[in-house]
Every structure is written in structure tokens, then in C-alpha cells.
Task: structure prediction
Amino acid sequence: MIVNAIPDQTLIDQCLAGRREAFGQLVERYQHRLYHGLLHALGSAEDAQDIAQEAFVHAFEKLASFKGEAAFYSWLFRIALNASVSARRKTRRMSASVETRRDESGLEPTDENPASEPSYAMDVSDRQRLVRQALAELSDEFRTALVLKEMDGMSYEEIAEVIEVPLGTVRSRIHRARLELRAKLSMLLKPELL
Result:
């Protein structure tokens, strides 16, 4: 695609020079990646869409402050994380249950193959629900680092830029998140003894 042939910094410079449509190209380039990263981090399609929109607005307004020391997407994702924290503070609403988040995000695939065994589909659905539940129980700092690594495919260095912590802290958070997730899942998946 020709749009991706233009470097981010060139588009930023063009936008700052008055060509606002250049920012539209940045939006096209990163909107899906940002949305999906936020969807996994927030667990709600509606929240992810709202925060992504807000992040692009803030990025446009603050574009002159972009120094180019980090990748544009890392800077944008940091804005999105800050926007999500601000939104949580403003609303102070009760966190949605795991079931509500599943319904809002639509992340649970359904097996519509009539040849499949119903018990298999139920087992898969139960395990996915338990994984989402365990992930939701992790602290925000652990969940964010793990989601950025495992679901958004970011490198440790990119994650360090986005969440503004040292590289060693990122590695530690991801390691601890995996350990906590494994422990939570082992407890959730352990059959009840009668």
C-alpha cells in the first residue's frame, strides 16, 4: 500500500505544516492496531473504540510535542493508556463482570460447526471464560504488560517505551504476570473435590 511507504515522521511534519490529511493517513495506518491492543487491555469493545478515538484526538492536538524519540505508535499507545486511566478516574464505575466484558467485546468465538461435539464446544467456552477471568484478576500493570507482549506482539523495548518503565521492570512484570496467571488458572481449572 502506498500510504505505508511514507514514513511516520514525514506525515507528522506535513501535518504540522498545515496538511491535516497527513494525520488521516496516520489514523488509517494505526487505527486497527490501536483498537485491538486496547480491546485486549480493556476487555470492552466500546471502551476500546472510545479510548482509541480519544487518543487520536489528543495525539492530533499534541502532535507538536512529539519528539520522535520513540516510535509514533508507542507514543500514541501511551496517550491511549493515559486516556483509559483518566476515563476510569472520571467515571469511577464498578468494573464490569467477566460475563459483561465478554458480551461487550465479542471475544469468545462460537463453534457453529454442526459436526462438532457439544461437550467440546462447552469445554472450550469454559476454558476461555476462565482465562478471561484469570486475566481480569491480574493487576493493571501486570495485565497491560502481558497483553502488549502476547496479544499486541510488542517487543520488551517497545513495551518499556509505551508504559514508561525500565526494560527490567517490563521483563519482571511479564514474568510475574505469567506466574500469577498460571497460578490462577490452576486453581480455576482444578476440579472441585466432593
In short: DSSP finds nine helices and no strands in the chain.
